[in-house]
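Journal club side-thread
Mid-discussion, someone asked how the predicted structure for our own chain would compare to the paper's figures. Pasting it here so we can look after the session.
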Amino acid sequence: MQYAHLDSQTSNLNDVFMTSNTLRTIAENPDFGIMMPDGTRLSARTWMPDNATDAPVPAILEFLPYRKRDGTTARDCLTHPYFARRGYACIRVDMRGNGDSEGLMEDEYSPQELADAVETIKWLAAQPWCSGTVGMMGISWGGFNALQVAALQPDALKAIITLCSTVDRYADDIHYKGGCLLNENLGWSGTMWSYSSRAPDPALRPDDWREIWLKRLENEPFLAATWLDHQHRDAYWKHGSVCEDYSKIKAATLAIGGWGDAYKNAPPALIENLTAPVKAIIGPWVHKYPHFAIPEPRIGFLQEALRWWDRWLKGIETGVEDDPLYRPYLMESVPPKSWYTERAGSWLAIAEKPSDLPRETWHFGENSLQESPAAFRKTIQSPQTCGAHSGEYCAIWLGPELPDDQRSDDAMSLVFTSEPVTEKRDIVGAPQVTLTLSSNTAQGQIALRLLDIQPNGASARITYGVLNLSHRHSHAEPSAMTPNSPEEVTLDLDHIAYRLPKGHRLGVAVSTVYWPLIWPSPEASKLTLTEGSLSLPLRASGDTDEWTFETPEADEPWQIETIREGSNIRKTVTDWATGIVTLEIIDDFGKVKDGDHGLINGSIAREWWSIHPDDPLSAKGRSHWSDELEREGITLRTETTSEMTSDATHFHLTARLEAFENGDLIFEKDVQRSILRDNL
């Protein structure tokens, strides 16, 4: 459940690219200063043609907290020089309060962050080496703020490329899903607790790195508490959610995602709603750029991006307007497992919006999916460990992270199954389930999984959705269930493109918990179902690619000396004395020395998620990060921990931050918060 940090890893990147012919000689600056109006200096790493002052070029901005010096270096080396050699100035900025920049971190996507980005774009456009047009790109955080900044309409911003992002910060991010609290709220907070508390590189800030670091440590926010203070879709979440008004985005938008990623719903939403030029691509990938992502097939993302930039930043006719509106990868059915290096399938070229595709209705019966409605009455009260085979919420490239065979979770769920289908079904879009149900408690949740039940009995998760039943009508104004009173509930599952082959059975699994993906309700509820239907979006497709992408290209990889190899552990441990079941995650990102400037960095992230099958109030999450920086006799280390438990009425959070210089503890800080549960 560590979320953003593989960007610093290179072990799997060096063999996934080919170097293109050099078109321009370029100059690189590792610490390019950009001054904000309040006097804060942001540090950028830049690549641009060395004759840009004489022949100005468009600028491409990537604006992140993830440390350009030792965080995103691996992917930056593959990507930004590629564009620079082809006539662009690429600017990779450390946000204020992070990496080598001054200032203090407040929160993700804060008004200050977006104002800084707008000011940076304005500043870039005015430089003598810039043609006056700017693009913005990024994956995850950078994809988020590219959309958000585009909605602010800075004059110079003409195009964006957003990857693995969201249009709705409440409904479709790492904090809440379907009104349920995602455990990633704590996990991601632990990641940023670690990332933003690290020191600048002393080589870039020789006079004041320690002062900057201590000030950063003193003011470092523990964001899990901030996010948990907002359990409804209130003004806090509406800020930065571009779905509030899609018309504000005027920049040409290329939206990209992956079926193995958590952020698969934004590209369909953007092509449904933007009036600006827009295209969408979704591959089989996890949370990575598509020129080096897995599972394969990868695509020539940099060439695709270059076509986008050339058209909208340089005015070159590249034909992007004529590309299909939507290019999803239709995944074939394969035996379920927790990791794939490649995924069979084919590329679709779809001219219409996903909502315009035809749909097929299936009805729930007694343990069945069938053509016509049928009367039934089924109850389910799942053990709190149901969901153990969900995989990571956001797969990132750290080992066995994908949902594997679902039969163990199916055994703790109600499963409605069709007869073997007599012809294939290509599911393209967001399936929708409508249920008539009652709960024996006022507060409860439901998890729905769409399944491919294969002839040998294996159960593969096609897609899924979860819902806090108090949010059945509104995420902004939740209302508790009336116990034992039936209501109709509708839930959209995540978008997908998946082929259910002839002879396979379609299944829908219903459970009352989904641990360790979502935090449990305060009581173990029992649901009674009496009616239900599944609306399945379909698209008639052939057996060959309808679109072909170029072979992946990239620039030269990051040169490093490996000091400690990385490793990944995921295991579940049952304490037979207490009955507590614990998922343990250890991601050792290794320790490396930069081959250019010599900075040494290493990180280890650990998480533990434990629960008793019979007790939702036994749930406990804990995170611990260890981070090291070494430079010419200076050794810096941070240890960051965070933990969450809950009782019937409150969430309880604790966190600790320790900083060491040459082995000596120079700073420590503890945080404790208890936050009232509000229909959660």
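Post-session note: Residues 1-169+244-291+308-320 form a domain with the Rossmann fold fold (CATH 3.40.50.1820).
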